[in-house]
Specification:
Elements: H1 2-23, H2 30-60, H3 64-88, H4 101-119, H5 129-181
Helix pairs in contact: 1-2, 1-4, 1-5, 2-4, 2-5, 3-5
């Protein structure tokens, strides 16, 4: 169960960082819209990845722990790199883009692509996949709501660090899965 919770928090960090940045714009509807979209898209994309993994599972059964390790380390590494790169930028003068449904959908898709890849690893997590998917969606929604609320105070300062923390969590899960299988 703890692996599923850690995976959910790791995946939620990029959505949390984006929510914190959007929180700077202080539009009240974003407290509802972003958590619903981000949570739904994270769970949906993870489900797509899980279904793809079920189809490809028999073909990669001997190598699944290596595939999971590679995917999680790659996703986590990308999150670390993006967080480091964004941290290096001067974000003090950057205001969030004006809100629109297309912006919200674009952000939801962008922050959930990694969940599709992580969904491939769900069969290795020792919990029923539907529980893992519910945790991914619920934790992402809760973290996104917290991100919007904290955005005014902490968003510009800690947003990239949240993405980096999420990357480290995903890398840790990948290392743990590989160590467990070897």
């Amino acid at each position: 169960m703890w692996a599923a919770i850690a995976l959910a928090f790791g995946l939620a960090m990029d959505a949390t960082a984006v929510s914190a940045a959007r929180g700077l714009a202080a539009q009240p509807r974003e407290l509802v819209v972003l958590p619903l979209l981000f949570g739904s898209f994270q769970a949906g994309m993870a489900a797509i990845g899980w279904l793809a993994g079920r189809w490809a599972g028999p073909y990669i059964a001997r190598w699944d722990h290596w595939v999971a390790f590679g995917l999680l380390v790659a996703i986590g590494g990308k999150m670390l790199f993006d967080g480091w790169r964004d941290r290096a930028k001067d974000t003090a003068d950057c205001a969030p883009a004006p809100a629109s449904i297309m912006l919200y959908l674009g952000l939801a898709i962008a922050t959930s692509i990694d969940a599709a890849a992580a969904g491939l690893t769900l069969p290795l997590v020792p919990v029923a996949p539907w529980i893992a998917l519910a945790l991914i969606g619920g934790i992402t929604a809760a973290c996104s709501a917290a991100g919007v609320l904290a955005g005014r105070v902490f968003g510009a300062r800690f947003g990239p660090r949240l993405a980096m923390l999420g990357g480290l969590v995903l890398i840790g899960i990948g290392v743990r899965l590989l160590a467990h299988e070897l």
